[in-house]
Amino acid sequence: MTPCLTCGEPGRGSRCDSCRGYDRQHRKLSRKARRLQPFCQSCGSTENLQLDHGEETWRRRADGLPLRLQDYRGVYCSACNRANGPAR
Ligand SMILES: [Zn+2]
Ligand SMILES: [Zn+2]
């Protein structure tokens, strides 16, 4: 058993099943968000865009609820994302 890289629960492989499911959802939403808004919400950059988590994202994830685009803070470039807070 190795601890999950995301939540620390012991499991097989590097991530537990619920975190693997979450990663899949996040990747899909991230692609969609960047297609809808192909620029940084803060500085307008079109480079290194990421879909940024908010408190609501983590709450829904902890409750095991499906993630929706409106549960995220929005699309930010990696520089603004870093400025917004520690890497999560
Ligand atoms: Zn996990
Ligand atoms: Zn930016």
TrEMBL record:
Region listing for Disordered, in residue ranges: 1-20
Protein name per the record: HNH endonuclease
Source organism per UniProt: Candidatus Mycolicibacterium alkanivorans
